[in-house]
Amino acid sequence: MRIVLTGGGTGGHIFPIVAVVKKIKELAGGKSEVEFLFLGPDGELEKQVMEREFIPTRKIQCGKLRRYFSLLTFTDLAVKIPIGVVQSLWHLLVFMPDVVFAKGGYVSFPVAVAAWLYRIPVILHESDAAPGLANQILSRLAKRIIVSFPGSETFFPERKVILVGNPIREELASGSKEEAVKKFSLDPSKKTILIIGGSQGARSLNRAVLNILPKLLKKWQTIHLTGKNEYESVLQEAGKLGVKAAHGGYHPYPFLFDELWHAFSAADLVVSRAGANALTEIAANAKPAIIVPIEGSANKHQEQNAFAFSQAGAAVVLGQDNLGENIFFEKIEQVLEDKEFNFELRERIKKFYNPKAAEIIAGEIIKLAG
User: Topology of domain 171-352, per CATH?
Assistant: First the structure.
């Protein structure tokens, strides 16, 4: 059985692929005849993650499909996307898979089109509450479409859709608080705030945290995932405030991979962007959360994701305009100190996690491959 994987650009696309791959291997009983090939951009994250899973990769050109006017659209439509389709046709011809698992987004577009031309079945996964343009187009080519949010089914042909949820690595819900205290040098007597800016960082969220950092550290401690691009500047700004890394309860990191599940286990509150993967990880750990969606994200997908959580009373949602010192600090204090409110958030957010998601998707992929 040969399976092509495609997606990328952010951890929200890459890590769910890994979760599904692991389940496919389990369901196949570890049979050596299951082969994988990843087609996507030549990104550092893609390389790092696929190498860890011993999955060979091939680079393809990827062009964005935009709903708004941009001169770059002409280059993408006329050059990058056609080149990406030709490259995908070649790699699929050489590998000739039984099925293509497309995590969605513009990165998946050339591969899914090439697969359709070869009549190779495509299974598409949509993480967000509202699909982007690429996935709406690809839904016409896909044999099966997996969605993560209730209500997302309405965007796709009903006969193809299955509501499953967003797959995450199982270990992300099995961290140890005791291990976290050791790894992050935490004070077990203090409450911990986990701040997640996303795999690429979130400048406005980082700045909002820095604005109240000295005030936060008087009462609590923080694990701050700044994003690789922001890490050095955050350290410098924190230093100007008299805050040093690993001192006074401040623990900044550019990114966490193997230790992330321990950070979740230690958190009494998670402050995060509204990427589907991050939200699912929070839900899997049943943590109260303050969600700050990126304004102007593609198709407003982060705002749509945040709205779904807010509507269910599963998280506190703050717009970027509401990240002023007073409001931001007050909301953090409310979630941490109001026990009843904290409990309600923990219970409601659990509904956004399906522990069987990766297994169900893996089963569908194997069915289509057969």
Answer: Rossmann fold (3.40.50)
**pLDDT grade, residue 69 (50/70/90)?**
low
CATH number of 2-165+355-369: 3.40.50.2000
According to the model, what pLDDT value does residue 173 have? 87
Ranges of beta strands (E only) in 41-169 are 57-59, 99-102, 122-126, 144-147, 161-163
* pLDDT tens digits, one per residue of 189-235: 999 999 998 655 578 899 999 999 999 999 999 999 998 889 999 99
User: What does the pLDDT read at residue 320?
Assistant: 81
Q: Where are the domains of the chain?
A: 2-165+355-369, 171-352
pLDDT at 123 over 80: yes
Same fold for the pair 2-165+355-369 and 171-352: yes
Q: Give the span between the Cα atoms of 98 and 254, in whole angstroms.
A: 38
| Buried residues in 73-99 as b, exposed as e (16+ CB within 10 A) | eeebeeebbeebbebbbebbeebebbb
Provide the 8-state DSSP code for 293. P
